[in-house]
């Protein structure tokens, strides 16, 4: 008989005997775990990682040469992350307000992102004279702080944080709440009800569940509404000189 055949037959017999000798427990032959699902990360939105972007911040809605206007729709995108600069994959509701035009009132984030649409609305006498429009997004989160030792907590080793004011639509674009700006009443360190009818400035404490500092943590509200805004230039990109 061919020697190669004998060798192969012997190997097959050995293999068969080996398999037959196994117990009912086949754990040694389990398929390796090939789960490639994206890791999840839930937590509090940090002011430093809350951003609002527009699909086109300089759309040519009003033609400066002809004076004509075009009906336009833009996509507004919000991205959220935590104090450790990690994307938040759990759901968070984000609210919107605009100086002019029409915008969806809210969206719910999925894997750290959500979008709404803003569109023009040419009601007589409402178009901003400077053809600029301010759009705002806001959500429940925590104020940002400088984490000196990198432990993700504002403790007695830390001293610097951003004490945010209540959100508002800055219609005159001067960075300060005043006449003509739209106030947004929300719960904050100065107003735990969110209905006091005045624009609240910062409460001088850090509003954050990550705060353990002995004297700088808010005792009224550990979270607050954080926000970001963007200005849309409806005259399009600047013309080349």
Short description, anyone?
This protein has 241 residues and is mainly beta. Helices cover 7% and strands 23% of the residues.
Assigned CATH architecture of the domain at 40-143 and 166-194 and 223-241 = Sandwich
Rounded to the nearest angstrom, the distance between the terminal CA atoms is: 94 Å
What spatial order of strands do you see in the largest sheet? 1-2-6-4
- Can you tell me the CATH class of the domain at 40-143 and 166-194 and 223-241? Mainly Beta
Your description of this structure?
By secondary structure, this protein is mainly beta. The chain contains 1 helix and 10 strands, in the order H-E-E-E-E-E-E-E-E-E-E. The strands form 3 sheets. It has a 4-stranded antiparallel β-sheet, with no helix packed on it. The chain starts with a helix and ends in an 8-residue tail after the last strand.
Helix/strand layout:
Layout: H1 3-20, E1 50-54, E2 73-80, E3 93-98, E4 102-103, E5 106-108, E6 113-119, E7 132-141, E8 168-169, E9 182-183, E10 224-233
Question: What are the salient characteristics of this protein?
Answer:
241 residues; mainly beta; Immunoglobulin-like; 4-stranded antiparallel β-sheet; 7% helix; 23% strand; disordered N terminus
């Amino acid at each position: 008989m061919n020697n190669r055949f004998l060798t192969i037959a012997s190997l097959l017999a050995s293999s068969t005997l080996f398999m037959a000798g196994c117990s009912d427990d086949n754990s040694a032959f389990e398929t390796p775990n090939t789960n490639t699902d994206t890791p999840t990360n839930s937590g509090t939105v940090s002011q430093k990682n809350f951003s609002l972007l527009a699909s086109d911040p300089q759309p040519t809605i009003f033609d400066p040469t002809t004076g004509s206007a075009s009906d336009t729709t833009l996509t507004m995108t919000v991205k959220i992350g935590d104090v450790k600069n990690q994307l938040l994959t759990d759901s968070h509701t984000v609210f919107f307000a605009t100086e002019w035009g029409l915008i969806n009132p809210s969206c719910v984030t999925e894997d750290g992102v959500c979008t709404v649409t803003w569109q023009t609305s040419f009601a007589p006498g409402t178009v901003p004279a400077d053809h600029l429009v301010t759009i705002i997004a806001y959500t429940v989160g925590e104020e940002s702080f400088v984490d000196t030792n990198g432990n993700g907590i504002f403790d007695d080793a830390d001293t610097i944080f951003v004490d945010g004011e209540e959100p508002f639509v800055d219609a005159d674009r001067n960075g300060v709440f005043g006449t003509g700006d739209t106030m947004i009443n929300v719960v904050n360190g100065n107003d735990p009800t969110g209905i006091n009818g005045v624009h609240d400035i910062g409460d001088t404490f850090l509003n954050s569940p990550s705060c353990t500092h002995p004297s700088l943590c808010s005792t009224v509200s550990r979270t607050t509404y954080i926000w970001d805004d963007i200005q849309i230039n409806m005259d399009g990109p600047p013309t080349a000189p």
